[in-house]
Amino acid sequence: MFDRRQILWTMAAAMVASSAAGCASGPSTSRSVRVQQGDFNDIAFADWTDDEPEYLLYPGDEIEVATPTATELTRTLRVGPDGRIALPLIGQAMAADRTLSELEYELSSAYASQLVRPVVEVTLKNAGPIKVWVDGEVRTPGVYDMNGDIDAYQAIIQAGGFLPSARPQQVALIRRGPGSVRMMRVVDLRQRRGEVIALRRGDVLYVPRSTLGELANFFTQVKAALPVGFNYTINGQYQQF
């Protein structure tokens, strides 16, 4: 779950550090600030890494569940809105937030009472759309489906672009890293001057205002900006944040 107070303190400290660094050293070729675990002992963010975590299944993904020892049970299925799939003999099984190997193990265990050799092979056939959350000083904040490769600036454009009050050079990017840990960095998304940041499923972009003023005002500005967690269920619908 996101702790909004922790996010606020982290974003504020990172932005203050970024501004101070800019004043001390002038323009820099590296415009991102990476929040590290050791920088904020009371903040629940892990050190940033660009390492790609093992793929986790999500609603909308199309998978093949093959049973080589009982081929009549092989199915091509789409993970449902609740994160589940339905299989012969064993019924409903949770697939969302599992790696392929984890799902293979769980399904093999479920088939153990039904098959003599319960071997299950799971293959990702087609990945569903990438969902990202864009909030703050953009014209139409919300959750967006991103098809294909898309970067952070393109996501801002899809959300209607920056408002005049936006601070595009200090946008917060929150991401789930390896082991489902939360990571955050502050990135520069100014047109033609900013960074090209490829987005991943579940990324959160928050655009602060250009006139931050006192930190207390900044806290008020963003206190309700972010979703409550990386994944949860509302009325049976699996959510990806």
TrEMBL record:
Grouped into one coarse class, the protein's main location is: membrane
Task: Give the domain of life.
Answer: Bacteria
Gene Ontology cellular-component terms for this entry are: cell outer membrane; pore complex
* Domain named SLBB: residues: 131-207
| Cross-referenced InterPro entries | Poly_export, Poly_export_N, SLBB_dom
User: Could you tell me the Gene Ontology terms of the biological process aspect for this record?
Assistant: monoatomic ion transport
Q: Which UniProt keywords apply?
A: Cell outer membrane, Ion transport, Lipoprotein, Membrane, Palmitate, Polysaccharide transport, Porin, Signal, Sugar transport, Transmembrane, Transmembrane beta strand, Transport
An example Pfam family from this entry, by short name, is: SLBB_2
**Subcellular location field:** Cell outer membrane
Q: Which Gene3D superfamilies match?
A: Outer membrane lipoprotein wza domain like, wza like domain
**Its topology with respect to the membrane?**
Multi-pass membrane protein
Task: Return one GO MF term.
Answer: porin activity
Looking at the record, the residues that make up the Polysaccharide export protein N-terminal domain are 51-124
Its family?
Belongs to the BexD/CtrA/VexA family.
This protein is called what?
A: Polysaccharide export protein
